[in-house]
Design brief:
Keywords: Membrane, Oxidoreductase, Transmembrane, Transmembrane helix
GO molecular function: oxidoreductase activity
Helix content: 40-55%
Distance between the termini: 62 Å
Protein name: Short-subunit dehydrogenase
Structural class: alpha/beta
Family: Belongs to the short-chain dehydrogenases/reductases (SDR) family.
CATH class: Alpha Beta
Radius of gyration: 21 Å
Number of helices: 11
InterPro entries: KR_dom, NAD(P)-bd_dom_sf, Sc_DH/Rdtase_CS, SDR_fam, SDR_oxidoreductase
Number of strands: 9
Length: 285
């Protein structure tokens, strides 16, 4: 990628989005800083070459307008960082349909809206990168965040298919899977109003742990922002970028567990196909 890129980042008012935007601007990159409430990000505009635009990723028309404005001002969007997202703490059974749909509207369809908006320009230029922040919860499921994990798993699946479709056109796709970082996410997530007692030792315990972790998470968002910048600008960017010791341990342990189970049930898996024709009989008279 060129030495200076134009980055479009969603959800810059807090958390990863703010840290990523700040890191990039301080290093001379051009950044389109977006947030639903632009008054919360005006300070970022003073750090470098920034354009601040209001954006709700669930509004497909506003998404198109933001991308068009970014391309008008800077000539291109070289890197899209899909960071905007929300959480919700509840067991699967405790999650009401409206909350579940809201998670998908923001975390999945919001990401999809951004992808659809930047692809025409990236295809025309035959270059670009789409960075989708999912979560370690996009690779492994955890109690109390079932629908959140489902929305992030969905982004992982979309990203893998997208990668296969756009890499031949010069466009890269990276997913980023952080574990717990010291951001506002856990403290700002909505949660179930009337918990079910049967889930107190699973989802209930997890909810309490999430709240207790606020301000004590192991992950440093400033280091995460630097890691994302390094990965995107590397000669061979990764397809998956784990962030945090917990993310690395969870992901690699799950891979090992899956491989062991696949091997244990290999005969059953392979036996589900139609039997192959007998080569000897085919060659006989």
């Amino acid at each position: 990628m060129s030495t200076q890129n134009t980055w479009l980042i969603t959800g810059c008012s807090t958390g990863f989005g703010r840290y990523i935007a700040s890191h990039l601007l301080e290093r001379g990159e051009r950044v389109v800083v977006t947030a639903r409430k632009v008054e919360q990000v005006q300070d970022l505009a003073r750090l470098g070459q920034a354009v601040v635009l209001p954006l709700d990723v669930t509004d497909a028309e506003q998404v198109k307008a933001v991308v068009a404005e970014a391309e008008h001002v800077f000539g291109s969007v070289d890197v899209l960082v899909n960071n905007a997202g929300i959480g919700h703490f509840a067991a699967v059974e405790e999650t009401d349909p409206q909350s579940a749909r809201r998670l998908f509207e923001v975390n999945f369809f919001g990401t999809a809206h951004m992808i659809h908006a930047v692809l025409p320009g990236m295809r025309q230029r035959r270059r670009g990168m789409i960075v989708n922040l999912t979560s370690i919860g996009g690779l492994a499921g955890f109690p109390a965040v079932g629908y959140y994990c489902a929305s992030k798993f969905a982004v992982e699946g979309l990203s893998e298919t997208l990668r296969a479709e756009v890499e031949p056109l010069g466009i890269r796709v990276m997913t980023v899977e952080p574990s717990a970082f010291r951001t506002e996410w856990a403290g700002s997530a909505a949660e179930v109003a009337e918990p079910i007692d049967d889930y107190d030792m699973t989802a209930g315990e997890a909810r309490r742990a999430y709240h207790a972790s606020v301000g004590h998470q192991a992950g440093d968002p400033a280091r995460a922002a630097a890691a994302i910048h390094t990965a995107v600008t590397a000669p061979r960017p990764p397809k998956w970028l784990l962030l945090g010791n917990d993310a690395f341990e969870v992901a690699t342990n799950k891979l090992a567990d899956m491989q062991a189970e696949f091997r244990a049930w290999e005969a059953t898996a392979r036996g589900a196909d139609f039997p192959k024709p007998n080569a000897d009989r085919l060659g006989g008279g």
